[in-house]
Amino acid sequence: MSSRRTWRFLALPGVVWLSVFFLVAFYAVLAVALGNENSLSEPVPFWNPLDWNVGYLLEVLRDIVHGGHYLTVFLRTFAFVGIAMALSLAIGYPVAYFAARHTRGRWRGLVLLLLVLPFWINYLMRMLAWINLLSADGWATRFLHTVGIERLFIWLGLLSTEGGWLDGQPSTVILALVYGYIPFLILPLYAVLDRIDQRQIEAARDLGASALSGFLRVTLPLSVPGILAGVVLVALPMFGDYYTPDLVSASTKTNIIGNQIDQLTRQGSEKVTGAVLTILLSLLLVVLMVYYLRTTRRADEETANA
Amino acid sequence: MTRWFRNPWGKPRWLVVVTALYIVWSILPVGIAILFAFNNGRSRTTWQGFSLRWFTGSTGSVLHDPALQGALKHTLFLGVLCVLVATPLGVALALGLQRWRGRGSGTVNTMMLLPLVTPEIVMGVALLLLFLNVFPGLGLGTKAQAIGQVTFTLSYVVVIVRGRLVSIGREYEEAAADLGAPPHDQLLRVLLPLLAPAIIASAAVVFALSIDDFVVTQYLSSDASTTTVPMLLYATARGAPTPALNAIATVTLLITLATLALAFFVYRRFAGGGQAAVAAALEV
Predict the structure, then answer these.
(1) Complex ipTM, two decimals?
(2) Is the predicted pLDDT of residue A231 greater than 80, yes or no?
(3) Structural domains of chain B ordered from first start
(4) Does residue A226 sit within a domain?
(5) Domain span including residue A264
């Protein structure tokens, strides 16, 4: 095949598309964040890096350093995402473990289908379902009241009023995030647990390890790449979420960074500050990704050496 | 618990319980939301008997309410548009990337994967600022929404089609070349027919992703005529809507699931052994 050129020619339209609508779009965020505003507070992007103006960036950074509003929002985001991640792992690990180690044949197919299904149910429909259930006279609200969980939550300070699950409760937002994104954690974890060689665990048992220490010293360490992959895959969309707090709380008390960006860019007219926050969020996520990639590479090398 | 410690290869009962509870928790709420789409009353929390009024009734139903109708039509329209653009673009890019070795291919590979790991809000803001500042002539609305959806669905097409390309190998093309087929014949008469199942599967995935998309579509919307079903759910879920909202969500869910099931069976029927690729794609 007069190959090289033909293939490159085939790739060309896609490459051009991604360059314009992905790379240039990103550059537009940078140009707006490091640009200026006109008198109508519309952004005036600076396309030439030599013109870049760090004024708006410094303003946000100064606010963060001095413990201002944006620091609160960032800390709240970390707290919500951190707790939601930990809960997802606590619930998701046993489920992935069960699916990978204790199911066979048709039964496994069914379990996997049920684990994959939430991916293809619209996220907003899944939230709508909970809004119905948790409204003042919803089925879940009544159930939680009857079995005493509502009282427990009020006693623990996680719920402010009876039946007020949807009135700006951080605990509801965190649980909704878990509900929304936990499938992203279970599937990669399942894939890794499924690949662990059973004989390694049998060997540990034959050498006298108890079931518990066999799990703690063989299965758990071998599943670390899956845990990391799962945690990163839930963290990425959680950090970028704004609709979950909007839907299940609708209060500025539960604003996370995504809400802030959404309010400044899409809804509001402070697009420059919104672009600055988008850049900061992207940097944060790049750091997370790089850390993840380095850890998995190191884990791979260690397995290879062993 | 104690039995699990004594017999590690038996099914530990508490794991069965946790998994069963998890599955019920993850699916039952949606089941109840679907149930209430059939409620014979305005409540979404109190069951008042079975009825199809929110699907086909003369007022306020999916079939007759102009806002619901508009949202559903716009959603499907964007889905078709997105499939028509993203599939050919992605197939060509996959073919190009698979065989193109050398300068630039690594960079393009990385660029192709980036949309898969970019949080949607970052992409939404980027595209919004692009359309406002670089292409103000194009403006926001249907065109921008379609372009935005194509940008993030393209990578899925490339991933699915490349999976199939790898499993086909180069032998067929080489055989065709040995028999004297010119390059375009190798492509059109050998590779594309072999790729057909993957192309159909990726088109279905693109369609499902498009009609389920919320963030990018919302960021690039203009007026009420560019509202999609997910946007409608976001805008009205907290208001005091009727079960018609549940009904339109149910209709959209059925369309998504039917599309994916179709793709899955086509792929399984015509690309035997390649199920893993579709399974992998469905799990993205």
Answers:
(1) 0.90
(2) yes
(3) 65-282 (1.10.3720.10)
(4) yes
(5) 68-268
Do the domain assignments include residue A260? Answer: yes
Name chain B contacts of A140, Cβ cutoff 8 Å: 29
What would the mean pLDDT of B141-147 be, rounded to a whole number?
95
| CB–CB contact A289 B117 (8 Å) | yes
Q: Read off the pTM.
A: 0.90
For residue A87, what are the CA distances in angstroms to A9, A121, A158, B100, B176? 48, 22, 15, 44, 55
> Could you tell me which chain B residue has the CA closest to the CA of A237?
B119
Q: What percent of chain B has pLDDT over 70?
A: 90
- Which of A125, A134, A236, A283 is the mutation pick for testing B, counting most B CBs within 10 A? A125
Q: What is the CATH number of the domain that holds A137?
A: 1.10.3720.10
A111-148 per-position pLDDT tens digit: 999 999 998 899 999 999 999 999 988 999 999 999 99
Q: Using DSSP, state whether A43 is helix, strand or coil.
A: strand
Residues of B in contact with A275 (CB under 8 A): 125, 129
Whether residue A72 lies inside any domain: the answer is yes
| Whole-number Cα distances in Å, B61 to A128, A137, B50, B75 | 18, 24, 15, 17
Residue of B nearest to A201 (CA): B8
Quote the number of domains for chain A: 1
* Cβ-defined contact of B233 to A14 (cutoff 8 Å): no
Burial per residue of A105-130, b for 16 or more beta-carbon CB atoms within 10 angstroms, e otherwise: eeeeeebbebbbebbbbbbbbbbbbb
Q: Are residues A262 and B238, on separate chains, in Cβ contact within 8 Å?
A: no
